[in-house]
Amino acid sequence: MHMQVMRRRLLARVLILAGTFFFGVLRADAALLTTESPEVLKAIELGVKYLQSDAAQDERPGAQALIGIALIKNQKKGESPELPKVVQAAAKVQAAIGAHDVSKVNPQMDIYSTGLSIIFLVTYDHARKQAGLAERHRADVEYLLAYLRARQKKHGGWGYPDRDTGDTSMTQYGVLSSWEAKFHGYKVPMESIEAVANWLLVTQDPSGAFGYQGTPAPNPTSLVAQSDVRHSMAAAGLGALYLSGNLLGVGNVEKPSKDIPSALREIKSKGPKEPPPFKSQIDAKLLRDAESRGNEWFAKNFKVQVDMWNLYYLYAFERYKSIAWFSEHPSGEIEKDPEWYSDIARFLIEKQSPTGVWAGQGCGDVPDTAFGVLFLLRSMQKSIIEAKKLGGGLLKGGQGIPKDTTDLFVGRDGKLKDMKREGPGEALLAALENQDDKDFDKKAESLDALPQATVEAMSSKQAAMIRQLVGHRKYEARLAAVKTLGKVRNLDNVPVLIYALTDPMVDIAREANEALLRISRSNDQKYRLSDNPTDSERRALIEKWKAWYRAIRPDADVDL
Q: What is the pLDDT of residues 352-400, one digit of tens each?
């Protein structure tokens, strides 16, 4: 660690301890509030009840998206997100989106609404998949991401269409929505993220905070004073800086050992050469220095109540603190009972009305109440934990990488992977032939990450092994097997894919049907599944696919 950075972090820690000492004395007998405290749970319940009610009226797409995000984040994993207000919010967002025309400016979809709508629809589809339902909004999200890129300023930030300046407030939602989309499997151009990271580096105030409309400095080491420096902008800019660095993987990521056995090295496809992973030109030291300046500013200036946009600020503050914590604790350790959370939670409980609303905070009753609920739920912490489960990791600055890199390799997506768990190409397929392997289930779940060229080159024995996994006891393994078989147009896979149409999880049946459509090259609507297919609909579809297959292979046995 650079001595300058070490000194800054030590100073920040000392300042935090000094700044919280007096609060600790005053609160000596009071327990810290946590996300599980009865008072907090009651406040969340009241806020959610309001957002679910007819009283929560705000037709702005961003406000509707916030309703949906808050209600879904409040649910337990696996619960159906098909709540009336969530379904209604999705319909209103879709109506505001209108035609998917990136070239035209949509007056309803400012950067706030665009970013929040991406987060909402991505969160909604993910919750649907976890509940065994099909995703619905991929096309909308892909359009919104393209629309977001089209509205990005040349300097890298986002802002009002009639101004050349970048707006720190809007920019945070451009970055946050990109981060959420990336870790849910959407393509996000890293050139765009590098551009916004550079803009954030040169628009930071010398104090470590951020202003409203950024004034770019000549370079990150010659910062200039910013206007309208305030707490909400400091949290917005610093959170966006951490998130963009995380997306870019900026830092001293160790390279895999040259001593990796050749049998476990990544297999290079003989097909068309894939583009190399994006390598950011951002200087990791400059990024860490900027983060340290921001942390020092908050150590000296943190407060709960500010003069304007208070709930908006607190929502951004939780985001900043969560991503900063996980960047410093790459092992995945969860932040336990932070004092700042307790301070803010007490403030929110005090300010909440008996009807559950946080009123008069600047953004409107619906957005501010959603912000309050999302803060109390630790929504960003939840998102980061989910991203890590989805394989995102937190690799910035070499974080999250074990000292022993013998079994690490860089995958085709540019992410560092552990071959003991995932294995590249034929190494993974070979490992899966041993079903007594204690890590068999984890390896099976990694199948759908195999490149198409590797799947096409599989031996008949390996293909048969994957077909067997379609009947595996674990949902993840079944889904991965169906996705893998769907990558190639192999008629031998048809019977097992027809069998997969009977799977109790609808998204697996849908993946199997999509694979059959690719194999058959059919666009016929009679082979389509509805959003929530009944058992009779599935049986009818199975009979249609069996008839199609027998027409091609009359002697085939496809009786189920």
A: 999 999 987 788 899 999 999 999 999 998 888 887 766 554 433 333 3
- pLDDT for 393-432, tens place per residue? 443 333 333 444 344 433 333 344 444 443 344 445 555 5
Whether the Cβ atoms of residue 320 and residue 291 lie closer than 8 Å to each other: no
Own/partner pairs, 220-227, CB within 8 angstroms, 24+ separation: 220/283, 220/286, 220/289, 220/290, 221/286
Residues near 257 by beta carbon (within 8 Å), at least 6 away in sequence: 405, 406, 408
Strand pairing report for 408-410 and 416-418:
antiparallel
**Could you give the CA distance from residue 9 to residue 530 in angstroms, rounded to a whole number?**
55
Contact by Cβ (8 Å): 345, 40: yes
Class of residue 525 by CB neighbours under 10 A (exposed 0-12, middle 13-18, buried 19+)? exposed
Amino acid 139 reads: A
Using alpha carbons, select from 136, 99, 92 the residue that is nearest to residue 117.
Answer: 92
**Which pLDDT value is given to residue 443?**
63
CA neighbours closer than 13 Å in the CB half-sphere of residue 478: 23
Q: Measure Cα distances from 66 to 86, 212, 329, 364, 365 in Å.
A: 10, 22, 29, 12, 12
Position 404, amino acid = D
Distance, CA of 432 to CA of 300 (rounded, Å) = 54
Closest CA to 359 of 50, 10, 44: 50
52-88 as b/e, with b when 16 or more CB fall inside 10 Å? beeebebebbbbbbbbbbbbbbbbeeeeebebebbee
Query: Model pTM greater than 0.70?
Result: no
Q: Which residue from 431, 429, 397 is spatially nearest to 284, judged by alpha carbons?
A: 397
Helix (H, G, I), strand (E, B), or coil: what is residue 409? strand
Token pair of 327 as six digits: 């960047």
**Residue of higher predicted confidence among 340 and 447:** 340
| Beta-bridge partners for 417 | 409
Hey, what are 200's tokens? 């954030």
Which structure tokens are listed for 494? 């048809």
User: Looking at the predicted structure, is the pLDDT value of residue 209 above 90?
Assistant: yes
Q: Cα(30)–Cα(62) distance, rounded to whole angstroms? A: 37
Among candidate residues 499, 270, 365, the one with its CA nearest the CA of residue 56? 365
In sequence order, what are the beta bridge partners of 418?
408
End-to-end CA distance of the chain: 62
With a cut of 50, say whether residue 329 has pLDDT above it. Answer: yes
**Which of 238, 210, 205 shows the shortest CA–CA distance to 220?**
205
Distance of CA 134 to the CA centre of its chain: 18
- Angstrom distance (rounded) from CA 105 to CA 98: 11
Q: If phi over 0 gives left and psi between -120 and 50 gives alpha, with beta otherwise, what is residue 425?
A: left
Q: How many alpha carbons fall within 13 Å on the CB side of residue 90? A: 22
Alpha carbons 477 and 499: distance in angstroms, whole number = 15
